[in-house]
């Protein structure tokens, strides 16, 4: 029978499990953070503003998009809307995690720490054994994944801003950024034709629209991609459902 | 653009981003809060946005050799990501490809 002692001893080991899960992902975050900081510095974003962004927005892909838009003198409204669209996936993560973390303490902090990596690591483990963990254990698992990522991001994106100019551009280190996006994108395409359509259309349209005024190409491409996914999604699920029913 | 609009844009983006993260995690989890069309579109936001970010990065370059070698490296990285499911392998393959292709193209 589970006693309170057993449950409380379980939390640290679940936290460690979270750390173990996120550790390999941190290898990709380090160059990403360094490049993000270096990009911000090259775009003449002041260090203070960059640190402010790191602490309050805390979202690499969105921060990079914001920096690039700002460096091209995009209006503030476009910057904010782009950040929101790029970060819309957090809404999905929030909804998926809510079921598991509903009774956890300090959900405000847990929300603040939400990233792709924290979501992926904790969700995989919580979804595979939903009844084996108490809310406290799930919170420990999530924090084990989320906190190392937060620390890594804060440290290396600051270092990138301070010292990034010293990295030779011939190394093409900025290429680590789109590569990280590729690594995040591919798992989403498994088993979903509609998602592949969303990505294909979104990517092509963003490329086609890259010359648009106000840098709306990214937003328009994304919106068209989402629309394509929705249109295909309805078509894709029906035949699959029929196949499963027979 | 002067500094104030930048800080304002950051602040607004931060508030909005926190709102997205906390939308379902704080408050009543069982209460449905999203309109139907948003719910249907949400699963496709990440693939569309990530793909758009990838191709937008290509558009930032103007030399055909650079664009070509990076596009090829991205395609290879995508393949590696699909087969290996490893972030490390994807990064390694992509960076190696862009270095090799860049060297072949004459150091672009």
Quick recap:
The complex is a heterodimer of chains A (246) and B (108). By secondary structure, chain A is mostly helical. Chain A has 11 helices and no strands.
SSE blueprint:
The complex is a heterodimer of chains A (246) and B (108).
Chain A: H1 4-42, H2 47-56, H3 60-71, H4 76-86, H5 89-101, H6 107-112, H7 116-128, H8 135-163, H9 176-189, H10 193-208, H11 217-245
Chain B: H1 3-22, H2 36-41, H3 45-59, H4 64-84, H5 87-104
Helix pairs in contact in B: 4-5
Structure notes:
Chain A has 246 residues and is mainly alpha-helical. Chain A is built from 11 helices and no strands. Chain A has helices at residues 4-42, 47-56, 60-71, 76-86, 89-101, 107-112, 116-128, 135-163, 176-189, 193-208, 217-245. In chain A, helix 1 runs antiparallel to helix 7 (116-128). The longest helix of chain A has 39 residues, at 4-42. By secondary structure, chain B is an all-alpha fold. Chain B has 5 helices and no strands. In chain B, helix 4 packs antiparallel against helix 5. The longest helix of chain B has 21 residues, at 64-84. Chain B is extended, with a radius of gyration of 20 Å. The model of chain B has no long low-confidence stretch (mean pLDDT 86).
